Amino acid sequence: MILRELSEAIGLSGAEDDVRALIVSHICDHVDDLQVDTIGNLLAVRRGTGQSNLRIMAAAHMDEVGMIVMGVDGDGFLRFDQIGGLDDRILPGLRVLVGPDRIPGVVGWKPIHLSTDDNTVPKKRLRIDIGATSKASAEAAVKPGDHIAFDSPFVELGPTVRGKAFDDRAGCASLIALIQGERFPFDLYVAFTVQEEVGTRGAQIAAQRFEPDAAFVLETTACHDLPQDPNEPDQTTITRLGGGPAITVMDHSMVSDPRLVRHLTRVAEAEGIPHQFRSPLHAGGTDAGIIHLTGIGVPSVVVANPCRYIHGPNSIMNLADFENQSRLLRAAWMALTPAVLER
Fold first, then answer.
1. Active site residues
2. pLDDT given at position 36
3. Are 260 and 216 in contact (CB under 8 A)?
4. Count of helix runs (H) and strand runs (E) in the chain
5. What value does the mean pLDDT take over residues 147-162?
6. Do 218 and 171 meet the contact criterion of CB atoms below 8 Å apart?
7. CA 263 and chain centroid, separation
8. How far is CA 271 from the centre of its chain?
C-alpha cells in the first residue's frame, strides 16, 4: 500500500528527500515532465487530452511535523525543539527516531510517583534518552540539527488505519493515484511541496512557477468526533471520521473560492460521493493559503482527509474517506470547464 510506504518514510520540513524519492518511483512513468526545484518541491506536468486549455494545479505537501536536536547535556540526554506544530502534552514517553541513522529514543519525564505538578511539562524541561551514558557517547551518535521523527509503524485497523504523518502523506497518496489514472481534459500541474508545516514556503514557489488558472490542495485535516462533555464550551468536531472527504469553505489562511466549492459539491451530489464541510472557524491553514495569493491571484480550494489525533505520533484515518478524496477530485476534474471559473 502506497499510504503505508509514505507514512513510514521520514521527511520533516526541510529534509523531505526520502519522501520525494519514494513519490518519484511511483509517478515517473505517468508524467510528461518531472523536476525538483531549488527549494526541494517535486514538480510534474501531466498533459491532458487537449479538450481544455485550463492550467490546473494540484498540491500536496511532503513534510511532517517533528523535532530537532538542539544540544547534548553533560549526562548524555538530548535537548530538542519542535519543527512544525506540536503540543507539549503529547511528548512525555514518546518513542522517537533520531538522526539519519534512526537511533531509537524516548522522551523522558519524571515518574508519576514523584510528580506533584498537574501542569503540562514544557518541552524545554524534557529530554530525549537514547541510552547514552555520557555527553561524549551521545555526541558520537548525534549532532545538533539532526531531525527527530515519531517512531510509529503503520497499522491497519479494519476500516481505519493508524500511523504517523498522514498530514499530508495521505494527500500525497491520493495525488499519486490521480496521476496514475486516465488523463484529464486539461494539463495538470502537480506540486508535491516542501516546508508546509513551517510556513507554506514550497507552495508559494511552485505556484509562482506554474501560474495556474485554479488550484486544488489535497490535505489532511483535524477530526474531533470523540464523545464530549456537554458542559464544555467548545463542542466543535471540525470533521467526522467516515463522513467523506472534507471540503474547506474557510480557514484561518483563506476563503476557498465559492465557484470551486459549488463545483465540488455539485459533482459529489451527482456522483453519490460522500462528503462533508470542514468547520470554518477552526484554526489552521494549508498551502492554499499562499497559493491563492500568488501572482494576480489563483482561485483555490482544499479537499481534506479527516484525521483523528493529527500532528501526533498515532493518527487514525478512515480508508473510505481516503479513497473518496481521489474519487471526488477525479470526477470534479473530469467535469471542470472554463465556465466553472466564470464570474
1. 196
2. 98
3. yes
4. 8, 17
5. 97
6. yes
7. 24
8. 27
66-150 homologous superfamily: Peptidase M42, domain 2 (2.40.30.40)
pTM exceeds 0.90:
yes
CATH topology of 2-64+164-341 equal to that of 66-150?
A: no
**CATH superfamily label, 2-64+164-341:** Zn peptidases (3.40.630.10)
CA 87/CA 106 separation, integer angstroms? 16
The domain segmentation of the chain, as residue ranges, is 2-64+164-341, 66-150
d(CA 222, CA 240): 9
> What residue has cell string 495538470?
188
Report angle CA 314, 92, 142 to the nearest 5 degrees.
90
Amino acid in position 211: E
**Tens digits of residue pLDDT in 74-114:** 999 999 999 999 999 999 999 999 999 999 999 998 777 76
pLDDT of amino acid 228: 77
Strand blocks (E) in the chain: 33-36, 42-46, 55-61, 66-72, 78-83, 95-98, 103-108, 127-129, 147-150, 155-157, 160-163, 187-193, 214-223, 246-248, 276-278, 300-308, 315-318
